[in-house]
Specification:
The protein is of the alpha+beta class. It contains twelve helices and ten strands. The protein has a six-stranded antiparallel beta sheet with strand order 1-2-3-4-6-5, covered by helices on one side. Strands 7-10 form a two-stranded antiparallel sheet. Strands 8-9 form a two-stranded antiparallel sheet. The two termini are about 35 Å apart.
Length: about 350
Amino acid sequence: MEQFQGTKSMTGTHAFDVAALQAHLQARLPGFEGPLSVEQFKGGQSNPTYKLVTPRAAYVMRSKPGPASKLLPSAHAVEREFRVMNALAGSDVPVPRMHLLCEDESVIGRAFYVMEFVQGRVLWEQSLPGATPPERGAIYDAMNRVIAALHKLDVQALGLADFGRPGNYFERQIARWTKQYQASITGTNEAMERLIEWLPAHMPASARDEAMVSVVHGDYRLDNLIFHPTEPRVLAVLDWELSTIGHPLADFSYHCMSWHIPPGSFRGIGGLDLAALGIPLEDDYVRRYCERSGRGTPASLKADWNFYLAYNLFRIAAIVQGIAKRVEAGTAASEQARQSAASARPLAELGWRFAQAA
């Protein structure tokens, strides 16, 4: 979420009737009192995000970018975000407090939810410029602790047993993102076509292990976390749009793509002098995750690492291709979307290189 990158006035396709929203919240949100003013957070390439300001309190609203009839099937799942964060309240995975969900599109023209405004830091650059080496190490360790905690949670106890379909996780995910990609094609991408053919035919045994089940975030990375204003402590994990019940190593290897993506539009740390920066090497980061989560050993994870990286680069390329399609259709939620859209091909090409090395 872009809540600490600044806000802007609502314009274009993402503007809505503020008076209608105020009336809805006044009737349904305890303690809410107008007048209400609304600002849109900068960024937000999938679901536009707004700061709701009243004389007594501030809130955050996440909405779909338009009515369901104009969106790709299963995309922009704000309802799922609301449900999973509600379920995680009070767990070892910090999340904002959920206030209400509105699926009635007649209120502002699209579904939305309202949650707590968490004051803290969103750290955008993976290399953490301006921090000292010990500070960088502590921030990375905090990220590691939270994702390991997520993958240890009891799905049944959370009431999320039906949050995703059981079994065949990778087969279903590859099929899903293939379908999403094919629905969003704006140009040729040879590496993507190769990955679509290669991935289902080269799944390792670890990817088929039905005992490996957890809540997965789906987009766990540095800038989807809010850190304490001064401490290396995660106050809230945001952007659960892609969350489901799935394979924890899919989630963790996605998080670890940063070590392989060079600095640039996706803010990776590939090729940087990590020892000088105080950022852990990938092998050390994997080891700490294994110790904390109990999900295998470093050797067992790394044995199939190239498959997992190829899969995740395919997946993120499909997501980025969806952004490119929304840019073309005029429904992308930020100015950054156009820049991200250009990354689909290089991400797929990097994924194909990992597939060839597997």
